[in-house]
Amino acid sequence: MKKKLAVVILNWNGKSWLEKFLPSVIRYSQQADIYVIDNLSTDDSINFLQNHFPEVKIVKNDKNYGFAGGYNEGLKEIDHDFYCLLNSDVEVTENWIEPILDLFDKNPDISAIQPKILSYDRKNFFEFAGAAGGLIDNLGYPYCRGRIFEDVEEDHGQYDDETEISWASGCCLFIRSKDFWEQKGFDERFFAHQEEIDLCWRLINSGKKIFYTGKSKIYHVGGGTLNKQSAKKTFLNMRNNLSMLLKNLPFPYLITVIFARLCLDGLAAIYFGYKYGISHFWAVGKAHFSFYLQAPGTLKRRQKHQKHKFYQSKWLIFKHFSK
Questions:
Q1: Angle 278-305/251-276 helices, nearest 10 degrees?
Q2: Could you give the CA distance from residue 190 to residue 196 in angstroms, rounded to a whole number?
Q3: What pLDDT, on a 0 to 100 scale, did the predictor assign at position 308?
Q4: pLDDT tens digits for 262-312?
Q5: What is the rounded distance in angstroms from the CA atom of residue 276 to the CA atom of residue 234?
Q6: pLDDT tens readout for residues 290-304
Q7: CB-count exposure of residue 10 (10 Å: 0-12, 13-18, 19+)
Q8: What is the C-alpha to C-alpha distance for residues 275 and 119, in angstroms, rounded to an integer?
Q9: Please, what's the largest Cα pairwise distance for the chain?
Q10: Strands, E, within the chain: which ranges?
Q11: What per-residue confidence (pLDDT) applies to 223?
């Protein structure tokens, strides 16, 4: 009998992560069907799964589509009411699913939920990618409760609440499948990084809610695919954030915020070049060039996603910095 939740792990040459963390997913996810979407791995991941975890269903993509495209392709083959998009470098805990499904059941307007995300290496600290729920400041920079820039808080129970947020981390993203597909999934042009923030913003634009619950927790290694010092990660984050703003900002804020960000990115390029090396300096420039090339397509997508004028009644994105 098909279950209403599918826990879905996207894999590309991540056999070692699957070997380490898949047992906890199987142990604590009895109420879900478990899938691995494979982005044409070359590291024997498929054979390993078939031999050691036959209960896990495998969806094979015909190439490496990246995070965004990989999920979009693979999820076409998975028909469940809810998806949990879970990174392969995550250790889940007992009772991690029940609070999420309960929250969905209580509020049909909630489209996406994330749990408390703690560090696998320092289990009493929040983890960089999502922490206690994502927010966006008034210049469009994503940040989290429990983490601002590279500083993370120790978990003292200060975020054991259930609250509305601006975005849920793609590290562990629970989402209603119908809402995912109504938005046509992730923007595949992003490839990886901030595609989940863009998707959550589009969901908010359509009148839906994004939530965090501290009643569920997981432990995330982080940097399993691209570490924080990767120039490619700098490029993707810079380009994708600008594209997200151009697509989703309400018009009165669009020109001033984009202009301010382009100027600030110039300062960021100098800082990154000094801290991480010249490759990061050039990564910012390449990100801007790629953003300009994508702008016509982004504007077309903006028209599609601006049909619902939801901002006037609930300006969730900026309200945290406007108090």
A1: 160
A2: 10
A3: 40
A4: 999 999 899 888 888 999 999 999 999 999 999 999 998 886 555 444 333
A5: 10
A6: 999 999 999 988 865
A7: buried
A8: 24
A9: 56
A10: 5-11, 32-38, 57-60, 82-86, 90-92, 110-119, 134-136, 142-144, 147-148, 151-152, 162-165, 172-176, 209-220
A11: 59
pLDDT score, position 230: 84
- pTM value is 0.90
**Alpha-carbon distances of 111 from 69, 83, 204, 257, 271, rounded to whole Å:** 20, 11, 9, 27, 37
**Cβ-proximal residues to 106 (8 Å cutoff; 6+ apart), any chain:** none
Pairing assessment for the beta strands 5-11 and 147-148 based on DSSP bridges: unpaired
* HSE, side-chain direction, 13 A CA sphere, residue 94: 0
> Which are the contacts of 163, defined by CB distance < 8 A and separation ≥ 6?
133, 211, 212
Q: Reduced to 3 states, what is the DSSP secondary structure of residue 268? A: helix
Tell me which H or E stretch contains 260: helix 251-276
Burial class (CB in 10 A: 0-12, 13-18, 19+), 124: exposed
Confidence (pLDDT) at 309? 40
Residue ranges in the chain modelled with pLDDT below 50? 224-226, 307-323
pLDDT at 109: 96
Secondary structure, 3-state, 65-84: CHHHHHHHHHHCCCCCCEEE
> What is residue 264's three-state secondary structure?
helix
Distance between CA 78 and CA 255 in Å, rounded? 40
> What is the C-alpha separation between 15 and 256, in angstroms, rounded?
45
Q: Going along 41-129, which residue ranges are E strands?
A: 57-60, 82-86, 90-92, 110-119
Distance CA 282, CA 227 (A): 18
What would the pLDDT profile of 77-115 be if each residue is shown by its tens digit? 999 999 999 999 999 999 999 999 999 999 999 999 999
